[in-house]
Amino acid sequence: MSLQFKIEARSGAARRGRLLTPHGEVETPVFMPVGTLASVKGVSQDILEDLGVQILLGNTYHLYLRPGVAQVRKLGGLHRFMSWPRAILSDSGGFQVFSLNELRKVTEEGVTFRSHLDGSSHFFSPESAMDIQIGLGADIIMAFDECTEYPADQTRMRASMELTLRWAERSKKYFEAHKHEVPWATNHLGTAALGRPGERELAVNAGGGARETQTQALFGIVQGGMDTALRRESAERTIEIDFPGYAVGGLSVGEPRARTREVVESTVAHLPVDKPRYLMGVGTPEEIVEYARMGIDMMDCVLPTRAARHGLLFTSEGKVSIKQARYAGDEGPLDPNCGCRVCARYSRAYLRHLYASNEVLAQVLNTVHNLSFYLDTMRAVRHSI
Ligand SMILES: [Zn+2]
């Protein structure tokens, strides 16, 4: 069994549930912090554990380029490499190839693209994207898809959707044939010397010998641009291929927010009620609450971590731009209603000083608060369902 999903409560379209992965349990709806390069920028794994993070996202495209999948596989997979004992989800690489490569070339076979690091040429296909994700060893991995650009006309949206469907079939076929090659399926961490705390927890989470029968779970991705009829068709045909979970992709690509909401709401209506639903790459604190209310179970976004590094903080009283001079003498906490370690200890004046002085600690503390705020927001949503 690679993944189990239990729904424990419902309220309207929203659901509260539990995802059981080979690396522990994830309470849903969940916000997944983005750890692009096997690191949530500025925050160490022990702090992420303390914040209650149960699942992290890794970016296939970035990890493929650095440090490379062969290296990660040799070091026991992503969990062991980054000493993260809890669940991980990796994206397919399709979105990064789309967003970071203006010179990409898409054919039936796959996508040729240039590295944003050194301009070298690379190729991703559904098969190679599966091979890379199996080597990285995340608990949940994604079918290789084409993210349709916005705006796109009807012909283009359909062609792109059809390509993603063919790639979904190829992804599943390759995954089924190779899923037992995941590094932790054959890596007997539970029996040998368990030096690091992360590894001990790995063995406990996996229930000892049960680990060997566990594999990753491959999710399908619904595309179809901004056309709700195409989204419906994409959902129905992706469900026919049969995956243990479904993602809604191709949003937050420049369309108006109201359109994003319409597409999400209409797509969710066509997804199976008993499988996890993952909305990729959204959103603000208000938006993640709204999507959870629509019945989305999993979300990720770089917003809390990226905004934090630019001094933009989310609080119960709205957004705070900590760089502003008016905080220079402000002895109050960043957010009086936040229980995080940053708000419990430091003043706005100190956080403003750190940011203005370009101290590394500014990025750390700002990120810890923003992540806490997002995680608390989702906790509150779960309690309310
Ligand atoms: Zn806080």
Supply the helix-strand structural class.
Answer: alpha/beta
Shape: globular
The kinds of small molecule bound in this structure are:
zinc ion
Quaternary structure: single chain
Helical content, roughly? 40-55%
Number of helices: 15
Quote the beta fraction. Answer: 15-25%
Any idea what the radius of gyration is? 21 Å
Largest sheet: 6 strands, parallel
| CA distance, first residue to last residue | 28 Å
Strand order of the largest sheet: 4-14-13-12-11-10
| Uncertain residue segments | 187-201, 206-211
Number of strands: 16
Overall pLDDT level: 93
List the helices and strands and how they pair.
Layout (H helix, E strand, L loop, with lengths): L3 E8 L2 E8 L2 E5 L1 E3 L12 H7 L3 E4 L1 H6 L3 H6 L3 H4 L5 E4 L3 H7 L4 E2 L4 E4 L6 E4 L1 H11 L3 E3 L11 H25 L18 H10 L10 E6 L5 H14 L4 E3 L8 H12 L8 E3 L5 H9 L4 E3 L2 H7 L2 E4 L2 E4 L19 H5 L2 H9 L3 H25 L1
Parallel strand pairs: 4-14, 5-6, 10-11, 11-12, 12-13, 13-14
Antiparallel strand pairs: 1-2, 2-3, 7-8, 8-9, 15-16
Helix pairs in contact: 6-7, 7-9, 9-10, 11-15, 12-15, 14-15
The protein binds zinc ion.
The site of zinc ion has 8 residues, from helix 13 and helix 15.
Description:
This protein has helices spanning 45-51, 60-65, 69-74, 78-81, 94-100, 126-136, 154-178, 197-206, 228-241, 257-268, 285-293, 303-309, 341-345, 348-356, 360-384, and strands at residues 4-11, 14-21, 24-28, 30-32, 55-58, 87-90, 105-106, 111-114, 121-124, 140-142, 217-222, 246-248, 277-279, 298-300, 312-315, 318-321. The model is unreliable at 187-201 and 206-211 (pLDDT under 50). The protein is globular, with a radius of gyration of 21 Å. The chain has a 6-stranded parallel sheet. A 3-stranded antiparallel sheet has the order 1-2-3. The protein has a 3-stranded antiparallel sheet with strand order 7-8-9. 48% of the residues are buried. It has 385 residues and is α/β, with parallel strands linked by helices.
